[in-house]
Design a protein that fits this description.
Two copies of one chain form a homodimer.
Chain A lengths: L7 H10 L8 H9 L2 E5 L4 E3 H4 L2 E7 L2 E6 L6 E7 L4 E2 L1 H4 L8 E4 L3 E7 H10 L2 H26 L2 H11 L16 H8 L3 H13 L3 E4 L2 E4 L2 H8 L6
Antiparallel strand pairs in A: 1-8, 2-7, 3-6, 3-8, 4-5, 4-7, 9-10
Helix pairs in contact in A: 1-2, 7-10, 8-9
Chain A binds a DNA duplex (30 and 30 nucleotides) through helix 9.
DNA sequence: CCCAAAGTGGTACCTAGGTACCTGTTTATC
DNA sequence: GATAAACAGGTACCTAGGTACCACTTTGGG
């Protein structure tokens, strides 16, 4: 892509905002963007590890879920929801053994893509990137450790309350990132099934913690939600 | 520690074997070991993130479990079992937010320790370490992703069978790393409770997949175990 | 060597959460 | 705008797995 492209400033801004590239200089980003191609994914399009192993992606807008599934039972577990500034797949970038993971667009997704080899070359040209990658991986590892143990250490109701709290914007008190998602997707995020989520949403409405209108969850009572998430809520 | 120490050759050998240090030169390892102190942990001694945040550890011998727990219920989930050549805590090394994790010795544990700051300095002197750390983190992340989704995607029996298969030595057909562990600890590894493990061990004995003698599990029939792990076993 | 106390494993009972079935709601087609 | 098809959510029923209780086995102190 050349710098006279219509969306060039918007793309540069998206790259600048990425925590993955946070220590990179402007000219390095220019050089990177010049090698990239823009692509649109319609909602619900998905790829697996094979498909994305040879291309590295930056998200410009939209949401993408990263999940594993059991084809025999149809159960899914969503590990991350990625959005603006996030990248995938970091593991392929590191040349680890292929890991069968799926990526699926939750909305219309705008990505910038670059061949994996070129991305590796670019990183080697800017050694400061190694530190950035390490801290990115460290953060993700910590998140993964929590996700890994959450399912066994806490009940589904507690996990649902914690999920809502994690995604509330401090100022607007509105849900971010996970708003507008059907019960299906919420279930995947806490490692359970849709019907259990539905049941718990009824319960949370009943105790006045939330209200639901047109597929949007509104938090009504933070204190109750906190009490549930911290397992202080005696039903 | 000076190079005239009795166990010096054994320690050097342990460091050489570590995948974390695999690309390091002999003199770099000497320099590292010179700054280290040996320490023994008796079985069942444990530390949390606070305790180990300021010291970096290398395991020389023995096994160490890394786990999270819910103090309200007493449930525990073991994330990793570390042994000879493994290191902890990598996340503290990266200066990420403290993560409340516990470490507990499963046997008598021999570690080499070094102040965290000195470890950071040493790494910065040997830039090849950055790549080693990245690939170490990548591998662990992949493992964590599997652990995170296993609990929701597979039943406890399937997870137990898979755990046994993962720890069988290809040649001797004996269990490694997890042998000799009480049902308690096995339960922590697959994210369930001791009683469920006990019940499943009865079941596996009944179908002839394993036998148990003096707290040691012996795999009798790999095919049956594989069928269960791959969910092809119709009970 | 005896006894207490801690450690380990087995199992009956019960409940959290999963399956299956249903109703209502939105989107696409002619 | 009518109708089908896909999508979304609610809930009765049932089972996998957790709790609680027991019995046996090992360890350590006098």
């Amino acid at each position: 892509m050349t710098s006279d492209h219509n969306d060039y400033p918007r793309y540069i801004q998206a790259l600048q905002q990425s925590s993955f590239l946070k220590d990179s200089k402007a000219e390095a980003l220019d050089q990177l963007l010049s090698q990239m191609t823009a692509e649109q994914w319609r909602a619900k399009t998905f790829r697996n590890s094979m498909d994305v192993a040879t291309t590295f992606h930056f998200i410009v807008s939209g949401r993408l879920k990263v999940y594993k599934s059991n084809p025999d039972t149809g159960r899914e577990h969503t590990v991350f929801v990625l959005s603006k500034g996030d990248v995938f797949d970091v593991l392929s970038l590191l040349d680890t053994e292929p890991n069968d993971v799926y990526w699926e667009a939750l909305d219309t997704l705008e990505v910038l893509k670059i061949p994996m080899d070129q991305m590796r070359l670019w990183i080697n040209e800017y050694p400061v990137m190694h530190k950035a990658i390490i801290s990115y991986l460290g953060e993700r590892m910590q998140q993964l450790m929590n996700i890994a143990t959450d399912v066994t250490l806490h009940s589904t109701l507690v996990r649902l309350a914690a999920l809502l709290l994690k995604n509330i914007n401090g100022e607007t008190r509105k849900l971010e990132l996970i708003n507008n998602l059907p019960n299906d997707e919420i279930a995947g995020l806490i490692g359970t099934t849709r019907s259990v989520v539905s049941r718990h949403i009824q319960e949370l409405k009943r105790v006045g913690a939330i209200s639901v209108s047109r597929r949007k969850i509104n938090v009504k009572n933070l204190e109750v939600l906190l009490a549930i998430a911290e397992e202080k809520h005696l039903p």
